[in-house]
Design a protein that fits this description.
single chain, alpha/beta, Rossmann fold, 4 domains, eight-stranded mixed sheet, 26 helices, elongated, binds GDP-alpha-D-glucose
Length: 732
């Protein structure tokens, strides 16, 4: 039976040693809970670092045995690997860059990168010990960015999902990393790439298409002939656990103690791992400002601040710890009274029951990270508010803010705004609290951790199916052979060939894409067969097609069907068309040329084309959208059609259409074999206009009305050659 393999840097377990015996205690993290429904089932397994350094082989096998009983499989790391792969590269390069702290905290050391690669390989080796064809592998987070491609190399068909738990930064940040291409190539080994928010997806797509030679169409990337889907899956929590904990005896007792200790004050809660991305210092500053500007709150409010020790071997974290200690100390020193301390600061972790009691008791939860992939603390607070009261103040830089829109949303850099929000929260009427909290609780409950796991796994399955259906549509193997067999048996064929992007590769300059010797030879082979009627159907000007193909035995259709020319005759154009509209549109296009360096206008008889292939990447697309919007109403008034193509926007008479031109030819004769090749938007009209029996082939693997696809002009040429050779073989 195929299995699922979960892979993350850390295993969801804590290992301690007492009296020479290793003790395992399962971790309570949200991810562990969510994935528990998977890795504990059947023969599934979770692979990761067990969290302690183990040196002797004897101890390693003892731990491995114990872990096996709870479906876990260890990757043992040496002290050096932990310090270079985990602390060095993951936490001193990836973490700061991905959280927009590149200039302050990132340090790029070659040996850290070398170890990052080696440890990713080590994880891969462990996976390969258990993975079989048909298995599904779900890899987690920034420590393992290279792993998807490493596994893919050995197991090309296996299903791989990847989820990034931290933000994906803008290209301007990401491209600072010396090893940026390798990291992206590593990620592209996956079939499905998941991020918390749509912003992360956007950043990833724009980064990967700028840095690597890959293309994307909406959220699908095509790389090495594989379609990779990129999507947002906002992670949730185990809402039922947080909703039911406050009903347990242990939590009730702690709640009573907290209520007694803070009975005359408003309790503001703050919980984070120690990290500069969490905005802990700025939060303290906002709280200090509040006491300074509003002394009436002295003795009336408390900040209960838990900072959980984290990454204590990384120097920046040691420094931050020091600064937080000092700040909390100085606020207390300035404002404390005999029976009141403003900040209750704890630098340690607490059992979940204490956390639950705090969530349940706090009037306000203050979550103000500078950047956060999602932030689960905010969701845990919401899930714990079983009476639908309480106020959440949430940073707009946390992924959670995209869904918890009923929180008070703040900019974490705006200390004044945080300070005002605390006052707004304290004063908020109960009815408004309930209104906001009810909405947020519905959201947290619907998009919980089980939902997150379910939709990710379902989508991964769908992506695999999409890839398989693309494979069967690719003109190769038996699919290609059956088309060849049909071709060989038929005697009256029509072959529609688009030119740019279909017979020749796309060139930066339109004049450069002239036919080469090999193409002329291929066309001669095709036209030599008396059973073939070859039609070249292009958007190019008729003068241009005459120059290149005028003396060939080819039926030419130019400007998308406006002009046509039977072999050895002169050109005709469709009658009754007017080009008077050009004088209105041309000046408008000129303003876009003036505003977009690198763009230019091409004029054809019944169309105007705005080309932007040489404009700055992104700017051209932006202007093309703007232009299309601008022209929308004018175009329909004047009976024009807008054709967005590959780095062009063409405006032409509505009556002119490649599909109509192709259908006219097909209707004239009783062809027993109809085939059409095309690569862009305009060719879709041909695919749709041809009868069902026609073989339609799209070049490139985007979504199309065509029945089959070939990847590039090289494949088209090879296939056309195969067609011609099939009849040669038969003739012999
Ligand atoms: C990364 C991303 C993303 C905290 N103190 C104690 C304790 N916690 C638990 C909380 C919460 C978890 O730790 C912290 O999760 P966050 O999401 O807030 O932050 P990160 O650790 O930075 O997590 C983040 C997350 O991955 C998931 O994708 O949301 O953006 O940075 O669950 O409850 N737990 C216990 N005692 C404590 O003192 N038991």
């Amino acid at each position: 039976m195929p299995k699922t393999i979960i892979v993350s840097n850390r295993l969801p377990v804590k290992i301690t040693q007492a009296d020479g015996e290793y003790q395992l205690s399962p971790s309570e993290g949200g991810l562990a809970t969510g994935l528990g429904s998977i890795y504990k089932q059947h023969n599934n397994v979770w692979i990761g670092w067990p969290g302690i350094e183990v040196n002797s082989d004897e101890d390693k096998s003892a731990i491995t045995e114990k872990l096996k009983e709870i479906s876990l499989m260890p990757v043992f790391l040496s002290q050096q690997e932990i310090s270079e792969y985990y602390e060095g590269f993951s936490n001193e390069v990836l973490w700061p860059v991905f959280h927009y702290y590149a200039s302050t905290y990132a340090s790029y050391k070659q040996s850290n990168w070398d170890h990052y690669r080696e440890v990713n390989q080590k994880f891969c080796d462990e996976i390969l010990k258990v993975a079989k064809a048909g298995d599904t592998i779900w890899i987690h987070d920034y420590q393992l960015l290279l792993l998807p491609a490493l596994v893919r190399e050995v197991m090309p068909d296996v299903s791989i999902g990847f989820f990034l738990h931290i933000p994906f930064p803008s290209n301007e940040m990401f491209r600072l990393i010396p090893w940026r291409s390798e990291l992206l190539e590593g990620m592209l080994g996956a079939d499905l790439l998941g991020f918390h928010t749509f912003d992360d997806v956007r950043h990833f797509l724009s980064t990967v298409t700028r840095i690597l030679p890959v293309t994307s169409s909406s959220n699908i990337i095509t790389a090495n002939d594989r379609s990779i889907v990129v999507e947002s899956f906002p992670m949730g929590i185990d809402d039922k656990k947080y909703g039911s904990l406050p009903l347990t005896q242990e939590v009730i007792e702690q709640v009573n103690q907290i209520k007694e200790a803070f009975k005359d004050t408003k309790l503001i809660l703050s919980i984070d791992r120690l990290d500069y991305s969490k905005g802990i210092l700025q939060r303290l500053e906002a709280f200090e400002l509040l006491l300074k500007l509003h002394p009436e709150y002295i003795g009336k409010i408390n900040l209960y601040m838990i900072v959980v020790p984290s990454r204590e071997n990384v120097p920046q974290y040691v420094h931050l710890h020091d600064q937080i200690d000092k700040k909390a100390g100085s606020i207390n020193a300035l404002y404390r009274t005999m029976d009141w301390s403003p900040v209750h600061y704890y630098y340690r972790s607490f059992p979940i029951e204490m956390l639950s009691a705090l969530y349940y008791s706090a009037d306000v939860c203050l979550v103000t990270p500078m950047r956060d992939g999602m932030n689960l603390v905010s969701k845990e607070y919401v899930a714990s508010r079983v009476n639908n009261d309480g106020v959440l103040i949430l940073s707009e830089m946390a992924g959670a803010s995209k869904k918890l829109i009923d929180a008070i949303i703040v900019n974490p850099n705006n200390i004044g705004e945080i300070c005002r929000s605390i006052i707004q929260a304290i004063k908020m009427p109960l009815a408004e609290q309930r209104e906001r909290m009810t909405q947020m609780r519905q959201n947290v409950s619907k998009f919980n951790i089980a939902h997150w796991v379910k939709i990710f796994m379902e989508r991964l399955k769908e992506v695999k199916q999409l890839q398989r259906s693309m494979q069967t549509r690719h003109v190769s193997g038996t699919t290609g052979q059956s088309i060849i067999n049909r071709y060989a048996k038929t005697k009256n064929r029509i072959i529609f060939l688009d030119y740019d992007g279909t017979l020749v590769d796309f060139k930066p300059n339109i004049a450069q894409a002239e036919p080469d010797k090999q193409l002329y030879e291929l066309l001669s082979l095709l036209t030599e067969d008396p059973a073939n009627h070859v039609v070249l159907i292009s958007g190019r000007k008729h003068e241009n097609l005459s120059e290149w193909f005028g003396n060939k035995n080819i039926y030419l259709i130019a400007e998308h069907g406006a002009w046509f020319r039977q072999q050895n005759t002169s050109w005709h154009k469709i009658s009754g068309l007017s080009d008077a509209w050009k004088q209105d549109i041309y000046p408008l296009l000129e303003t876009y040329v003036d505003r977009t360096p690198g763009s230019f206008i091409e004029e054809k008889t019944y169309s105007l084309v705005w080309h932007y292939r040489k404009a700055q990447k992104g700017l051209g697309e932006l202007r093309a959208n703007e232009l299309a919007n601008n022209l929308k109403y004018l175009a329909s008034d004047k009976g024009l059609q807008l054709l967005p193509g590959d780095k062009v926007l063409e405006i032409k008479n509505m009556e002119v259409n490649k599909g109509k031109a192709a259908a006219l030819l097909v209707d004239k004769n009783d062809y027993d074999f109809i085939i059409a090749f095309g690569d862009d938007y305009t060719d879709e009209d041909i695919f749709k206009a041809l009868p069902d029996s026609a073989i339609t082939i799209k070049v490139g693997s985007n979504i199309s009305a065509a029945k089959f696809y070939l990847r590039n002009p090289g494949e088209v040429r090879r296939f056309l050659l195969d067609l011609t050779e099939s009849t040669v073989v038969q003739d012999k």
